[in-house]
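Researcher: Can you fold this with guanosine-5'-diphosphate in place?
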Amino acid sequence: MRLLEWQGREIFQRAGIPVPPGELATSPEEAQAVAARLGGPVVLKAQVPVGGRGKAGGIKLAATPAQAREIAKDLLGTKLKGVPVEVLLVVKATEIRSEHYLGITIDRSPRQPVLIYSPSGGVDIEEVAKIHPAKVAKVAIPPLEGLYPFRLRRLFSIAPAELRRELSRMAVKLYSVFQKYECSLVEINPVAETEAGLLALDAKVIIDDDHRPGDQFAGLSEAAEDPLEAEAKAAGLSFVRLAGDIGIIGNGAGLVMATLDLVTLAGGRPANFLDIGGGARAERVQKAVELVARSAQAKVLLVNVFGGITRCDEVARGIVEATGVLEIPVVVRLTGTNEREGKEILARAGLVPVDTMEEGAARAVALAKGGT
Ligand code: GDP
Ligand code: MN
């Protein structure tokens, strides 16, 4: 469950992590009023559960309340990476001296939380790690030991000396959030160095879906989900939006993961993970294809189904039913139960299936790159 920035901010504030003053707005008039109340330049921030909003045009500076109103008018109702913008967070603009990265996630090999810091914040941390690995520091936190000061000293040895103490205080608070809310990720990118000290200018909080129920959420607003992910869940489908342009549908989490791997190996980038589960009937398959179509980011759809309790003819029927809403090419690999019937249904609709997963991945990648 990924929280929106303003919900993450609420949790940060409760934990004593400093954030710039701000309020929500759902109309241009509200944005103007909030800007007037805050005084001075403000930043308008689209509240959508996707990353890289700045680059995508979802973060805008306004010098005056009137300008805040104009920008809000432009932002509200548009889509950012396919997600409609309905709420803006309006915060007092900050003068930034430097931007840093601070995050905590679970490192799956040592099976421990890991604290990550970089003095090059405000940009994609994966990129920094790739280009300047020395600018990213990590320390594992054995959960039974906790966050001893020596671990923080090690982590912040690459931080400017005058910021180490304040960064350490922030990290301790962030770790308390991570534990209390049973997060799989908490991230502040950027931590901004300002005249008044360090501020969390962004908040990314992902709560583990298997967190224990508790009253830690009392008083906090309902978590927002990517509307497509929520719709998928209601239809019994597991859908996760990814950053690429090749839509993927399969049955069984393992097969879908393998398909994502094959596509990546073939030089492509998956647009989503979508598992139709076991024994899916045509309607569920149709719904899955529609979700990929509506996510509006796939240039090609790759369907990979291994028929067991799932019948290939049902899958084929679902695909054919949905082709009306699909404006992108479809690559299908079908094998197993009722394979022959399934392939006949596809053939009648003019769809020629591929024989292997590898072939399917290669064809999908070629199509995404504009080939045939
Ligand atoms: P993201 O792109 O979704 O990660 O959104 P962020 O909230 O992190 O904003 C992106 C970038 O906008 C930040 O890294 C900052 O460089 C910039 N930014 C955000 N708020 C402010 C602000 O108050 N003042 C200034 N000068 N820049 C800001
Ligand atoms: Mn950010």
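Model: Folded with guanosine-5'-diphosphate in place. Residues 43, 45, 51-54, 59, 93-94, 96, 99, 122, 189-190, 201-202 surround guanosine-5'-diphosphate (ligand 1) (CB under 6 Å).
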